[in-house]
Design goal:
The complex is a heterodimer.
Chain A: E1 2-7, H1 15-28, E2 33-38, H2 43-48, H3 58-63, E3 73-75, E4 81-84, H4 102-114, E5 119-124, H5 130-136, E6 141-147, H6 150-153, H7 156-169, E7 174-181, H8 188-200, H9 215-222, H10 234-251, H11 257-261
Chain B: H1 10-21, H2 33-37, E1 59-60, H3 88-103, E2 106-111, E3 117-120, H4 125-137, E4 148-153, E5 156-165, E6 168-176, H5 182-195
Antiparallel strand pairs in B: 1-3, 2-3, 2-6, 4-5, 5-6
Helix pairs in contact in B: 3-5
The chains are: A alpha/beta, B alpha+beta.
């Protein structure tokens, strides 16, 4: 199994939207995918399951690892796509010292792997500390989302420093790269910021696929659906399929797709 | 005009980014695979049960290599002065007793500037690895070196205290029931500096 943390330095960059739709793209491709909501705000659950506030989830497991995973995993209409809400203990302190939850996060991922999933995609809370830090320090890979606006991109040095620190705890962590989100092609400041980031970072560190700011995501969220399931979601789905392929290439450029997910 | 270049240093950002793309090097100090992996049976972090303190005799592995002199820092409380001919193991035992008496500290260990263990009563190689990692990750260019601590079990934290001594930077690790105050840290650093002051036995 491959575990990928979806992270960002700042909040409000579209992490939950990308996590849901990227996980859906993997699942559509036949990869048994578990999307875990590790954001105490519980946005994945709120987006996709109406009863999410009643569900136990990831933070309940951190509180009590003896809870069977079967009680936490929520199947969807797509056989290869399952969810885990953040849970009833999601007012859990997201900050705090690094390492406090490391053993339990690793135990969690080990148990998810044992359940037969190929991919565990984890939507984390913003920042690189506390539980989020432990999730990244336990994952095989991390992808970072960056809103295409100048102020957010100025935080990139801090983001890179944070990732370098986390690699001390997790030397095998693969940094998949930065994905630009909320790109507004009709706004020069947004496209300029995106271009500046591409100029700033090594080309291999910025995903080619970009996520545009689009009302479609708001409508999809309101209906509790991934964009690919919307009547007019085909173009957006192509973007997430492209992102999926880029990730697969980065994870194992030389081998076949399925060997990527087998341990 | 580039909207971000005047705010950040592109060379530094590129250096950080390229560092992330590289495979990480093996630690400078040999570390067992189990230590490096923090595997599931690792008792150091967030275990439900308190960290066990095996009743091992203190083990002096090697003295640190002397380098340039550094002034000792004033602090209270202090260990009573020892004769100049007192050996390092004797000084270390006095220091250990002093730490236990004043701060209820157990499982002491000291690493030298290369990360090698020069004193250890913890018997936990994983704590040494944790100390190296914390000392490394808490270091900021241009900022003074400071202590760090991390909760490792219910009612237990590991306190990591770097100190400049006449034998270079030493890193003291100790398991304590609560984080030490700023004054306590200053006292510990001062005593650690005196501990390694010459003459240093071979």
């Amino acid at each position: 199994m491959i575990s990928i943390a979806v992270s960002s330095q700042k909040g409000g960059v579209g992490k939950t939207t990308v996590s849901i739709n990227l996980a859906h793209a993997f699942a559509r491709a036949g990869i048994r995918t578990l999307l875990v909501d590790a954001d105490p705000q519980g946005s994945v659950g709120l987006s996709l399951t109406r009863q999410s506030r009643l569900l136990s989830g990831f933070y309940d497991y951190l509180t009590n690892p003896s809870i069977p995973l079967d009680r936490l995993i929520v199947p969807t209409r797509l056989e290869t796509f399952s969810l885990m809400a953040s849970g009833q203990a999601s007012d859990y302190e997201a900050g705090g010292g690094m390492g406090a939850h490391l053993v339990r996060v690793r135990s969690f991922l080990s148990n998810v792997s044992a359940r037969g999933f190929d991919l565990c995609l984890i939507d984390t809370a913003a920042g690189l500390f506390g539980v989020t830090g432990d999730v990244i320090a336990s994952s095989d890979a991390v992808m970072v989302l960056q809103q295409a606006e100048p102020l957010g991109i100025r935080s990139v040095p801090k983001l890179l420093e944070g990732l370098n620190r986390l690699r001390v705890s997790n030397p095998s962590l693969s940094v998949l790269g930065v994905c630009l989100t909320m790109v507004q092609h009709d706004l020069a400041e947004s496209t300029g910021a995106a271009a500046a980031l591409r100029q700033l970072l090594p080309p291999t560190m910025v995903f080619n696929a970009e996520i545009a700011r689009d009302g479609l995501y708001v409508r999809a969220s309101a209906r509790g659906l991934p964009v690919g399931s919307m009547e007019d979601g085909a173009e957006a789905q192509k973007v997430f399929d492209a992102l999926r392929i880029e990730i697969e290439t980065k994870l194992q450029p030389a081998n076949s797709r399925h060997s990527t997910y087998r341990s | 005009m580039n909207p971000v270049s005047q705010w950040i240093d592109p060379v530094e950002v590129r250096r950080l980014a390229e560092g992330l793309m590289m495979k990480t090097k093996a630690p400078a100090v040999p570390v067992s695979l189990a230590d490096a992996g923090f595997d599931a049976d690792f008792v150091g972090f967030a275990s439900a049960s308190p960290l066990e303190s095996p009743a091992l005799p203190p083990q002096i592995i090697s003295p640190p290599t002397p380098i340039a002199e550094a002034p000792a820092e004033p602090a209270r409380p202090e260990i009573a002065p020892t004769p100049s001919e007192t050996s390092f193991p004797e000084k270390m035992l006095r220091f250990k007793d002093w730490m236990r008496h004043h701060f209820d500290a157990t499982d002491l260990f000291i690493l030298d500037r290369e990360g090698s263990v020069i004193f250890d009563e913890s018997g936990h190689g994983r704590l040494h690895f944790l100390a190296r990692s914390l000392a490394l990750t808490s270091r900021r260019e241009g900022a003074p070196v400071a202590n760090v601590h991390m909760k490792i079990a219910a009612g237990s934290s590991v306190e990591i205290i770097p100190a400049a001594t006449t034998h270079g930077w030493l890193v003291l690790g100790a398991v304590v029931s609560k984080a030490l105050s700023t004054n306590s840290i200053a006292s510990v650093i001062a005593e650690l500096s005196k501990l390694s002051a010459p003459p240093f036995p071979r």
